[in-house]
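Notes taken during the Thursday session

The instructor put the following on the board and asked us to keep it in front of us for the whole hour. The protein is Aquaporin 7. We were told not to look anything up and to reason only from what is written here. First, the residues (312 in total):
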Amino acid sequence: MKDLEQALELGVSQRKRFNATQPKVWLRNECVRVGLAETLCTYVMMVFGLGSVAQVVTGQGAFGEYLSINLGFGLGVAMGVHVGGKVSGAHMNAAVSFTMCMFGRLGWKMLPLYICAQLLGSFLAAGTIYGVYYDAIHEYCGGNLTVTGELATAGIFATYPAPYLSLMGGFIDQVLGTALLLLCLMALSDQRNKPAAAGTEPIAVGLLVLLIGISMGRNSGYAINPTRDIAPRLFTALAGWGMDVFRAGNGWWWVPLVAPLIGGVLGAGLYKVLVEMHHLHVSEPGDELMKEFDEEAVSLKKQKIICANVCV
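Then, after some discussion, the predicted structure tokens were revealed:
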């Protein structure tokens, strides 16, 4: 009896010591945790991405070229996934969140939270880059903030179509780019195909964004992300560029807002219909062991029934 009391006291002492070493959880509300993480990871991604554009534009080629922008956004996405991946999934893109809802991977009630967090993170990032590069921007354009022309600076923050691009051509461009993004994201996360190795997901997603940038950025800057485009565009409208940010490109602003939503669903659906739905069942390493265990359990049950009948 004495030994039992000592063992209980030891267990209580160890439990107290374990609880004392556990980190304190400040926020337990899932929505708050997800919202904060999604805001921060979007902010990180956008600061690196917009910062790379600002450096190339204001530096007039002396501090980087178009590839610098591709690398800035690609690596920015990778860092964003590291920041919020385990908490919110680090969507950082309304097209991704919308597509996840369409395919049942995210509850619809969470969509407004994700979109608001992404808008806030993108808006704050635009403000940050404007503050950091304020002097450089005004020195470059002579204090005249314009949307189009040789010294235009609005393109640092939001995307605009090339002069030759029609609205229909730009719409198709954004649908295709986002479709490829979501198609490849589905493949990278498909555990029954060839997913990214554990721990390499951030760099894999970053490389995907880099690939889209270096192959599909010529027409309109590969926005492929509604919240990434509309929030900085709104910031520029308020910061001095005016309503021209919505009038430029024959009213281009709605294309990167709508087309990526359509493209994301099409790309993910294409992967699901052509690949994911046709996976053959692959036995897991423990399947055979569980099968043997079940067979032994059935055999033992039969033996018990036989013994019971004999005893009767």
